[in-house]
Design goal:
- With 205 residues, the chain is mostly helical.
- It folds into two domains: 46 residues, Orthogonal Bundle (Arc Repressor Mutant, subunit A); 139 residues, Tetracycline Repressor, domain 2 (Orthogonal Bundle).
- It contains nine helices and no strands.
- Helix 5 packs antiparallel against helix 9.
- The chain is elongated.
- The N and C termini lie far apart (70 Å).
């Protein structure tokens, strides 16, 4: 006789989140319903609404948790580097590493992020994380300017450009994984940023 599996609140919530990710990857955020998530989990909709207010809160939890994990992963790796230029290269490198390691969750996050970005309710929970990311990149850039490695520019203006390029590559890769060489994209982006930030853009300093 098959034993019935019992869940405590924490494990049940995680089960729901995991299934929500699978459903979003399979169907897209717009086509994923609370009904489908409940059916896959073998529970009633009431159980989902006991833990979450609905699909929006579900994806907010997935989105913010992954962004937080990605931020910590990159921050830990970057802080091991000494020079600002090496920190910037590692920041870009770790984004691609994390994206490959958590492909399905990342796909769900990007799919939902695009949908939620057009929502009139806004995303204050994501904005807080993004602001931290931009500030972290800007601090690396400012450090490079202070040490003389980078030319003068506004760090807080370049930071979202760098992060936006990374996110754009991720979105394109998920829509056409066979048509995009991630390693080449990483090298090109690192090279472009290196040239742009040099004291002498036409030189090799």
């Amino acid at each position: 006789m098959k034993k019935k599996r019992y869940f405590n609140d924490a494990s049940r919530k995680q089960q729901i989140l995991d299934i929500a990710i699978e459903e979003i990857v399979r169907k897209g955020y717009g086509n994923t319903s609370v009904d489908a998530i409940a059916a896959r989990a073998g529970i009633s909709k009431g159980v989902i609404y006991y833990h979450f207010n609905g699909k929006r809160e579900l994806i907010e939890r997935i989105y913010s948790a992954l962004l937080e994990e990605l931020f910590r992963y990159r921050k830990t790796r970057v802080e091991k580097e000494v020079s600002p230029r090496a920190k910037l290269r590692t920041y870009i490198q770790t984004y691609f590493e994390f994206m490959r390691k958590h492909k399905n969750t990342f796909m769900a996050m990007m799919e939902a992020g695009i949908d939620l970005a057009s929502d009139h309710q806004g995303n204050p929970w994501a904005k807080g994380i993004n602001d931290r990311v931009f500030k972290f990149i800007a601090e690396i850039l400012a450090e490079g300017q202070k040490s003389g490695e980078f030319r003068p520019f506004l760090p807080m203006s370049l930071a979202p450009v760098i992060q936006g390029a990374l996110d754009g590559i991720a979105i394109h890769w998920f829509s056409d994984p066979e048509g995009l060489n991630l390693d080449e994209c990483r090298k090109e982006l690192q090279g472009m940023i290196e040239i742009y930030t040099r004291q002498n853009p036409g030189g090799t300093d």
